[in-house]
């Protein structure tokens, strides 16, 4: 089944195959729900309902991680471990009283690890509230059943780096939504040497071409987690040339392209440059920065 927003986008893309529509900016993602800890701002706990509520209030989409405890409870928790034990080695009773807010200030100390049932209950009946469900260790059969039970097939994006997972989700939720993310092979700032930039681009290209071989049939949104160095003439790895070509190919297939400045995401100019490369929306660890740029673009 062709997704409604894709039909709309294709209908508008008269000559180029794609038309810029600022409404796609509402699919911009806030990592962990409220990004990274920044001194001097309100920092809502990772994956918490409070973080999600803030993102929804800004008309963007929170991202939260889906994991499963030893006794099969589905929780929203970022790290794979707690106190050096894997999350899947704990029963829910051992985790339910863990504070995830203490590091964010005393006013958040009461915040506990949320259940995905709780996040879904908040979303039910509010079709404008969407979420990127970053996939970890949960069987697709279990998570998809939960999504369908809350009737959120058109609000939950299965978000992951495996194209195989995208296919599995589509099989389990035929009318569901998927978000495929790719990165350059490092979570830390890379040195912007020619060799390291080429290596990072090759790493991402391999994932991209895997999806391209299927004409991106299993995905709705493709997220590029981009290394950045604003001091460079071309501040991106992979290169601006690669990104522009990739976005063009995605638009030709009727897909949405999201650019996430994984490093230096507090620089608003990087979002503007990604927009000029053709990206439809963004990802961020700095929601206020991204939201200001989105407001600027919508006002043009």
Protein architecture, described:
- This protein is of the alpha/beta class and 300 residues long.
- It has 2 domains: 1-30 and 183-300, Rossmann fold (3-Layer(aba) Sandwich); 39-54 and 61-176, Phosphatidylinositol (PI) phosphodiesterase (TIM Barrel).
- It is built from 10 helices and 12 strands.
- An 8-stranded parallel barrel has the order 1-2-6-7-8-9-11-12, surrounded by 5 helices. The protein has a two-stranded antiparallel sheet with strand order 4-5.
- Helix 5 (140-149) crosses helix 6 (163-172).
- The protein is globular.
Number of helices: 10
For the termini, the CA-CA separation is: 34 Å
Structural class from helices and strands?
A: alpha/beta
Largest sheet: 8 strands, parallel, barrel
Instruction: Using the coordinates shown, work out and report the CATH topology of the largest domain.
Output: Rossmann fold
Which overall shape is indicated by the principal axes computed on the Cα atoms? Answer: globular
CATH architecture of the largest domain: 3-Layer(aba) Sandwich
Strand percentage: 15-25%
The percent of residues in helical segments reads 25-40%
Whole-angstrom Rg? 19 Å
> Which oligomeric form is depicted?
single chain
List segments where confidence is low: pLDDT < 50 over at least 5 consecutive residues.
4-17
Number of E strands = 12
Overall tally of structural domains: 2
> Mean pLDDT score, rounded?
94
- Kindly provide the name of the CATH class of the largest domain: Alpha Beta
Order of strands, widest sheet: 1-2-6-7-8-9-11-12
């Amino acid at each position: 089944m062709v997704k409604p927003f894709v039909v709309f986008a294709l209908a508008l893309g008269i000559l180029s195959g794609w038309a810029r529509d600022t409404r796609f900016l509402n699919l911009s993602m806030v990592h962990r729900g409220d990004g990274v800890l920044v001194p001097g701002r309100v920092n809502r706990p990772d994956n918490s309902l409070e973080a999600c509520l803030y993102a929804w209030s800004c008309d963007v989409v929170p991202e939260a991680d889906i994991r499963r405890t030893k006794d099969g409870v589905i929780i929203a928790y970022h790290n794979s471990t707690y106190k050096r034990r894997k999350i899947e080695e704990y029963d829910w009773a051992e985790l339910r009283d863990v504070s995830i807010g203490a590091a964010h200030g005393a006013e958040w100390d009461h915040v506990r690890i949320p259940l995905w049932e709780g996040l879904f209950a908040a979303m039910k009946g509010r079709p404008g509230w969407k979420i990127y469900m970053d996939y970890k260790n949960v069987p697709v059969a279990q998570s998809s059943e939960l999504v369908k039970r809350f009737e959120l097939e058109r609000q939950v994006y299965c978000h992951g780096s495996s194209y195989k997972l995208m296919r599995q989700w589509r099989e389990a939720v035929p009318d569901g939504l998927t978000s495929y993310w790719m990165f350059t092979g490092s979570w830390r700032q890379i040195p912007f040497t020619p060799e390291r930039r080429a290596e990072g681009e090759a790493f991402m290209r391999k994932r991209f071409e895997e999806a391209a071989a299927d004409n991106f049939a299993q995905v709705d949104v493709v997220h590029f987690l981009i290394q950045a160095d604003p001091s460079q003439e071309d501040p991106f790895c992979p290169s601006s040339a690669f990104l522009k070509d990739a976005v063009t190919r995605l638009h030709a297939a009727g897909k949405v392209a999201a650019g996430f400045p994984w490093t230096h995401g507090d620089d608003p100019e990087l979002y503007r440059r990604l927009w000029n490369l053709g990206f439809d929306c963004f990802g961020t660890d700095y929601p206020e920065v991204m939201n200001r740029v989105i407001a600027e673009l919508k006002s043009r």
